[in-house]
Amino acid sequence: MHPLRKNRPLRRIVLASAVTASGLVMLLALKPHTAPAIAVAPAPAASSSSDANSRTGSGGSTATGTRTVTGETAQTRWGPIQVKITLTNGRITDVSAVQSPSDNPRDQEINSYALPELRREVLAAQSAKIDTVSGATYTSDGYRQSLQSALDSAGL
Questions:
Q1: Where exactly are the structural domains of the chain?
Q2: Rounded distance between C-alpha atoms, residue 6 and residue 3, angstroms
Q3: Euclidean distance between CA atoms 84 and 128, whole angstroms
Q4: Of 13, 40, 45, 112, whose Cβ has the fewest other Cβ atoms within 10 Å?
């Protein structure tokens, strides 16, 4: 006689519960499939609206004028993030996310509160030494990496 056909209903209940719990754990661990990204030629790492380096002769953070620098794309668990900074007279005057995870409504919800908070932090700190936004750890880490890349490219 088969072991499950014996008159032991508790064994069947335990086995069925274990299989159901295992299936549920595997289902919740899945991330939805993301569509492949369209290949786009990368933007230049640094573009200058004024030739600041030739006027100062130093080529460093003492440059005058305004220039925009785009950081490298940081790959996070939930998708890529890339930051663009605007520098005026060696100070960060604007920060924006060129790319951010937006494959599903949850990503969009997180970005709606995390990106403005990260922007405020950067403008206040004038560096990549900013706090992580609670609930947006991966986005914060990617933002910081891309920001540091942009600052390195700018010579700050």
A1: 1-30, 46-154
A2: 6
A3: 13
A4: 40
Q: How far is CA 26 from CA 32, 90, 95, in A?
A: 13, 50, 39
Phi then psi for 8, rounded to 5 degrees? -135, 80
| Whole-number Cα distances in Å, 133 to 35, 42, 75, 84, 141 | 27, 28, 18, 19, 9
* CA Rg value for the chain: 24
pTM of model > 0.85 = no
**Who's near 91: CB < 8 A, 6+ residues apart?**
126
Domain covering 46-154, topology = Sufe protein. Chain: A (3.90.1010)
Report the C-alpha gap between 151 and 85 in whole angstroms: 8
Q: Which of 84, 89, 121 is nearest to 100 (CA)?
A: 84
Alpha-carbon distance of 74 to 68, in angstroms, equals: 18
In the structure encoding, which two tokens stand for residue 73, read together? Answer: 């794309």
